[in-house]
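Protein details
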Amino acid sequence: MTKVIPCGGRIGFDSSLYLDVQSKSILERVEKYEKLYLEVGGKLSHDMHAGRILPGYEPDCKLQLFKRLASKLEIIIAIWAEALEKKKVRADLGCSYEFDVFRMIDEFKENGISVAGVVITRFDHQPSVSPFMERLEKLGIKTYTHSAIKGYPDPDVAVSDAGFGSQAYIETTKPVVVITGPGPNSGKLATALSQVYHEHSRKVKAGYAKLESFPVWNLPLLHPINIAYEAATADLGDYNLIDSWHKEAYGIEYVNYNRDVEAFPIVARLLEKIMGEEVYKSPTEMGVNAIGGAIIDDSLCRKAARSEIARRWFSYGVMALSGRVDLDTVKRSRRIMDGCGIAEDERAVVAAARGRLVCEKPTDAVKGVTVVGAVNIPSVGVITGRNSSLFHCSSAIVLKSLKVLAGVSAELHVLPKDIVSAVGIMKGKMGGKSSAVSLGLDETLTALAISASMDSESVCAKCLAILDKLRGLEMHFTSIPTGGDAKILRALGIVFSCDPVFSSKKHWDYL
């Protein structure tokens, strides 16, 4: 597991403690049933949101949790048929939902976790489903289809042989069955309840619970960690609120979010009708979320969450430019940020990047010619870099960061100029240009690796050896990095944001 620690190398969350407490919580719930269907909300692995707001959280913490329980646990993956048909993309990883299913299967297998099957939900003979199922079956993965239940979620319709009973039963053999999917609206809840119905029809005492990390039920409603959840789901319009069902039943105020609270009466009624008794009195009681108990430095996590709230606003601005979200989402994100009293430049990297841009040639900066980046390096502080005729801004700031982290003199060049020029000329010719073109981050790192292999004692080798130290560093750019650069920045584990401005293709000479 690789930690994402964006707050000066300090830890605010104890992943080991979380794994201990969360696994115990799940096993305690399992003791009540012969089989527990556990719906998992949010990211099962690569949970970068949690990693950013809880310094010390392992992005694959849930995966490690299930690895611990592997002897008692298996997985069902649910994916909505229309997500396949519309080639829906998981924004944080930049891959399609279809690809993500195969990625998850590989990840589970590598960690010794059984996959019971993949179910395509709300299936209506979409053309893209058959080839997807064929690919899965060639890999030995069982596949199932569930059609939409007319009248769902009416309990009298759903809890019947014509409702849940009409759906394919997914064969499982272990006491804990995790229902997950590549994104929201995958049909996880209906799949879980369908399975519980089938189990009870077979005289198996089965239950349902939900594992969803955010909002954190035992943190205050206005805690920055919980508000960061609202910022992360501004495109969905989610908001946090006090669980009124729990307060009425137990007189205690716990936090939940609107969709779970609104859906609870129906879910509770469905479970009651299936199981013949009242199961839960509140959506909070339905959950098995122990994440709040592993926060060991609240002030640090508050600071990280505030940074994330601001980062989300920048991110939605970029997404709006490409049409992936509407302007209402950007405005909602801005209201959340303003409500917390967070300024755009509260993060030091934003203030530094914008400050240097102003110090460049103002008239040219308006045209978008200059791109400035800033990075916050623990124990060193914020440093800045900019684009040039040789490098994209992301390339320049990454090289500069590596030099600082490796203790290399600022006077020394990391990459030999002849190699940089040769790659730039080749890149220019490939694009039909007679002049050299500046190097993107992937080309820069490739040149770094080649140069390092030629001399193990070189500056390149020293920089390449500490590439993992970039993980968790916070960066900001005054314009949008290219798609290729952004992908590499994410792969390096860099927590970056940018102003929602497109950069010019022109570059000034490197300073």
User: Anything to note?
Assistant: The longest strand covers residues 73-80. DSSP finds 21 helices and 14 strands in the chain. Residues 363-368, 505-511 have pLDDT under 50 and may be disordered.
